[in-house]
Every structure is written in C-alpha cells, then in structure tokens.
Amino acid sequence: MPPQKIMNPRSLSRRMRVRFVGLATWAVVVLLVLVLGAVNFFNTYRAEREIHTVLDVILDNDGILPSGIRFGENSVLDAEPEQPFQTRYFFVSYDREGSIESLRMDHIAAVSEENALEYGELIRTGIKDSGIIRRGHAFYAYRKTVTDDGRTLIAVLDSTRTFSSLQIFQSSSLAFGILCTVLYVLILTLLSGRVIAPFIRNMENQRQFITNAGHELKTPLAIISANTEVIEMMNGKSEWTDSIHAQIKRLSGLVGDLITLAKVGEQQDIVLTEVDFSGAAADAVAAFGPLAAKEEKKLLSEIAPDVTVMAEEKTLRELISILLDNAVKYCDDGGDILLRLSRTKRKKGAVLEVSNPYADGAHTDYSRFFERFYRADTSHSSEKQGYGIGLSMAQELAKLFGGNISVAYRDGRIYFTVSL
C-alpha cells in the first residue's frame, strides 16, 4: 500500500474554522427547521380546521352554506363576508339502503355530476369519515356523517386554492431556509478566522512556552546533576545525593514528556506507511516484560499475526509503550497485564486493547483520563511516578493516525482500547 500523508497539525486553524462553521451552521439549521416547521405546521393546522368547520356547517344545514353565518369568535372566515359565495362545494345524501336522495351541485362548476357521484360513492363506501381526494392538481376535502335515521350525508369542498397556497408557502419557506443557511455559512466563513484567531494564538503561545521552558530547564538540571556528582566524589554517596539524583531523573522525565507533548502538535507532515502492528506490539511486550516481572506482575499478550495499519512506525511504538507503561505502573500488586491485538471486523484496521486489574477504579471519573496533568490519585503522591501526561500523549498520537482511544472499567479491570 503506498504511503499516505495525513493533515499537517499546523493546519489546526483551518480544522478549527471548519469545525466552528460546521457546528454553528448545524445550530442555525436546527433553529430554522424548528421555526419554519412550526410556522408551516400552524398554517396547515389552521387551514384544515377552517376546512372542517365549513364542511360541518354544510352538513348541519343539509347541503347549504348559509350567508351571514358566524363560524366562530377566532375564525378568519368571519373576516371574509364573501366567503359563502366564494366557497365551492357539493353535497350528496344517501338513504338507509345507500340510494341517492339528493345531489346539490349549484355551488361548484369544476366537478361534473358524474364525477360528483363517483366521489360520493367512493367516500360512502370508504372507512374514513374525513380526508382529502386529489385529482390532478385539484384537492377536494370531504366530511361524512351518518344520521340517527341511517342516512349518510357527504359534503365535498374544493380546497385547491387553500392547499396550493400551503404548498407555495412551504416551498417559499424551504427556499428561504436554504438561502439563509447559505448566506450564514458565507458570512461565518469570512468572519471565522477572526473569531478563532485568539484561541489559535493562545494555543501556539502555550506550545511555544512549554517548548522553550523545557529547553531552559535542561541546563540547570544538568548543572545540578554535575554538582551532585562532584559532591559525591568529594564526600561520597549519601541518601541526600541519591535523593537529588532521583528528583533530577524525575524532573528530566517531566521535561522530556512536556517537550514531546508540545512537539506532537507542532510536527510537520507525517507520512503514513504500512506498519507491522503485530511486530511492534510483540517487541513492546518483550521490552516491558522484565519491568513487569521486577514488580512481580505478569505481562501477557494475545497478538493476532500479520496485523498491519497505516501509521508512522516510531510513533506507533511510542503509543504502545505509553499504554504498557501506564498498565505496569497502575496494575494491582501481583496482577496480570494483558495486551490484546486483533483485526477489525472489516479487516481494514486493528484494535489494540491493554488491560490490567485496578481495584481503585470503581469510583473513578474516566471522562477526564485523557486530560493533561489529570491523575485519578488526587493526593498526587509520588508512590506511582507520573504526571498525567502519558495518556494525553497517547490520545494525540492516536489522532495522528486517524484513530481514537477510549477507556472503560469492567469487573475490576481497566481497559484502554485503541482503534486504528
């Protein structure tokens, strides 16, 4: 498989702009859908209610829509005195046996008597008491009722203008929503650079500060180490000099981790090649085996053969080492550490799982495990050496390969899973 280049981490500004515009656009789209949807729903509901009101009046008056009738206190029909004369409808009544009693068609011209009888029979034998019949571009709303003496009354109202208006309004709403979204995206894209510029500048300054501070700290640490060695040469070793060396080693490790973490976000384009994941995992298990044995812990592995992924080999090995180091460090005394590597179901990726018993993990906030400098041990005792940087680095490294890392706690064991 040919090498692949992943996105330069220096393009963080562009990625943040895309994400910012995407989230903001999503919020606006949801808002427009809710608002325009509510307006359309209200208009449709009001139109259907008015149609049913007119049909009920026609049925109640035996096929006639009286002039001067009041439809209701809040009805818009009362604001249109010409409504009874503009309304197009016909009325059909059937006796108990289903024979036609009367057919009133003096208020409609678009429907022939033959079609009216066809619609009436269709409605009479149908299940629904109300609904819409659509013929071509015409819409006919109907209402059916059965009287106490067994007669069937059917009123059919030509609602073409009403539904055409609703369709026009819906189309206009859709076009308006799309236009607003497009304009919003264009404006937001133009202004997003200014919005996120302070955040980018702050992140760059922070990274630069960490890198510079790390390099500056190396010099005094080297001097302290050299002076301590001179003291040992003059006066011999003591518990005090041993303690100084231990703290120098600890601080040097912290400085190295800080610089590495800063460089993760600053490194140039990374070329992804096909890497032997199985071999890298096996080498890491072999390297950490003696360390685990020294602490009387077992390091076990279940590594599927010939598992390959698109990654950068050195960085991938560093990712595995971070997880194993964390497992050895926090594994319960006498516990067993298990590294399991398998292919994904689609056989185009891999899943690395590192687990160990962790008795103190039952009430731990795992949502914060990948935060920088976070430690579950809030006392920050030095019994377990660490600064809460390793897992944050692991997450950054996994992202470099387009993967992700997660943590879970089950049955007294903590599981770190990397999917690539």
From TrEMBL:
Family annotation (InterPro entries): HATPase_C_sf (IPR036890), HATPase_dom (IPR003594), His_kinase_dom (IPR005467), HisK_dim/P_dom (IPR003661), HisK_dim/P_sf (IPR036097), TCS_sensor_his_kinase (IPR050428)
Catalytic activity annotation: ATP + protein L-histidine = ADP + protein N-phospho-L-histidine
The protein's name in its UniProt record: histidine kinase
Membrane-spanning residues: 174-197
EC number: 2.7.13.3
SUPFAM superfamilies: ATPase domain of HSP90 chaperone/DNA topoisomerase II/histidine kinase, Homodimeric domain of signal transducing histidine kinase
This protein's GO CC annotations: plasma membrane
UniProt GO molecular function: phosphorelay sensor kinase activity
Record key words, sorted: Kinase, Membrane, Phosphoprotein, Transferase, Transmembrane, Transmembrane helix, Two-component regulatory system
Organism this protein belongs to: [Clostridium] aminophilum
Position of the signal peptide: none
UniProt cross-references to PROSITE patterns, sorted A to Z: HIS_KIN
Domain Histidine kinase intervals: 212-420
Source organism superkingdom: Bacteria
